[in-house]
Design brief:
The protein is mainly alpha-helical. It has helices at about 20-30, 45, 55-70, 90-95, 100-105, 110-115, 125-140, 150-170, 215-225, 245-255, 260-265, 270-300, 300-330, and strands spanning about 5-10, 35-40, 80, 145, 180. The protein has two domains: about 5-180 and about 300-330, Rossmann fold (3-Layer(aba) Sandwich), CATH 3.40.50; about 205-295, Tyrosyl-Transfer RNA Synthetase. It is built from 13 helices and five strands. The strands form two sheets. It has a three-stranded parallel beta sheet. Helix 4 crosses helix 13 (about 300-330) and helix 10 packs across helix 12. The longest helix has 30 residues, at about 300-330. It is globular, with a radius of gyration of 20 Å. Bound molecules: adenosine-5'-diphosphate and sodium ion. Adenosine-5'-diphosphate binds near residues 10, 17 and 24. Keywords: Aminoacyl-tRNA synthetase, ATP-binding, Cytoplasm, Ligase, Nucleotide-binding, Protein biosynthesis. This is Tryptophan--tRNA ligase. One of its GO terms (molecular function) is tryptophan-tRNA ligase activity. Homodimer.
């Protein structure tokens, strides 16, 4: 009974990676051509749950917007804006802080990972982050949330918040959104350690391919990527127990937009010394037009800002009546 609507967000916390591209940006762009309303947000209020230098945050937000647009986001088809532009996120976030339970937040694996051992010194915002994320999604009554695997637990928490709100207030007001996690690259791993996800916050630059890396950097990082001594299998089951090998094949498949089986049909039997340059060429071919366009857009900040202003207006127009009705339900 809820109209299909897609929402997702990315933090402007710097160093957009190949993981962000394959797990998020590229898939966001695929959705916009399905005739479904698509809303994409740069979640700056999530970014400041850990310290961000103000000038860096401003630059990274523009760079992320440039990354979206260069990856094919069409501002005529998708809404793109900053979270802080639409106050409804924070307002609904507060209401959800009062719906969600401490115990739910304590179970979040990302909280445990990011807060580390010294939880007493983590920001309160980092702890409450998943309630704000629920507001990001539900302030638009979004029904589908394309994300990487790391965000699955947060979308499930969003569902729990929607269910509890509806139950407590005896309404059928918020939809229970579905996480959409599909394709070969829902969890792109670090190039240095096949058990860790590739992340913009990893201190090792060699662990990730940044969307702004040049051809030489990409080739060098792939050449140095950790693998095992065996060659490439001819079927996917030959990648079992070989996380680094599997990761490189997954990346190839996602970039080439074919299945892992299709890749292995072509390259099965080759050594990694032969496969890595193929992967590097493919990554450069796909990423270099994007990084060139990002660089152009970074020279035209007024173009980016105009798109975001317009996106913010459109987002606000959807969020405002939903927020107004929420206040009404709560008795405000
Ligand atoms: P990061 O984890 O790099 O800081 P965000 O938390 O802002 O990035 O995540 C933005 C989006 O990118 C989310 O949908 C997330 O699931 C996706 N994503 C992040 N890292 C990866 C990865 N290594 N593989 C696939 N998707 C990823
Ligand atoms: Na993440």
């Amino acid at each position: 009974e809820f109209k299909q609507r897609v929402f997702s967000g990315i933090q402007p916390s710097g160093n957009l990676t190949l993981g962000n591209y394959l797990g998020a940006l590229k898939r966001f762009v695929d959705w916009q051509d399905n005739g479904i309303e698509t809303i994409y947000c740069m979640v700056d209020m999530h970014a400041i749950t850990v310290w961000q230098d103000p000038e860096a945050l401003r630059r990274q937000t523009r760079e992320l917007a440039a990354g979206f647009i260069a990856s094919g986001l069409d501002p005529q088809k998708s809404i793109l804006f900053n979270q802080s532009q639409v106050s409804g996120h924070a307002e609904l976030g507060w209401i959800f802080n009062c719906v969600a339970r401490m115990g739910w937040m304590q179970r979040m694996t990302q909280w445990k990972d990011k807060a580390g051992k010294n939880t007493q010194n983590a920001s309160l915002g980092l702890f409450a982050y998943p309630a704000l994320m629920a507001a990001d999604i539900l302030v638009y009554h979004a029904t589908h949330v394309p994300v990487g695997e790391d965000q699955k637990q947060h979308v499930e928490l969003t569902r729990d918040i929607a269910i509890k709100f509806n139950h407590d207030y005896k309404v059928d007001f918020f939809p229970t959104p579905e996480p959409v996690i599909e394709g070969a690259a829902t969890r792109v791993m670090s190039l240095r350690d096949g058990t860790k996800k590739m992340s913009k916050s990893d201190p090792s630059d060699a662990s990730r391919i940044n969307m702004t890396d040049d051809a030489d950097a990409i080739a060098q990082k792939i050449r140095k990527a950790k693998t095992d001594p065996d060659g490439l299998p001819s079927e996917a089951e030959g990648l079992e127990g070989r996380p680094e090998a599997r990761n490189l094949v997954n990346i190839y498949a996602a970039l080439a937009e074919v299945s892992v089986d299709d890749v292995l049909r072509d390259v099965g039997g080759k050594q990694f010394s032969e496969f890595k340059p193929m992967l590097a060429d493919l990554a450069v071919a796909k990423l270099s037009p994007i990084s060139t366009e990002m660089a152009r857009l970074m020279q035209a900040p007024e173009e980016i800002d105009a798109i975001l202003r317009n996106g913010g207006d459109k987002a606000r127009a959807i969020a405002e009546p939903i927020l107004k009705k929420t206040y009404d339900i709560v008795g405000m």
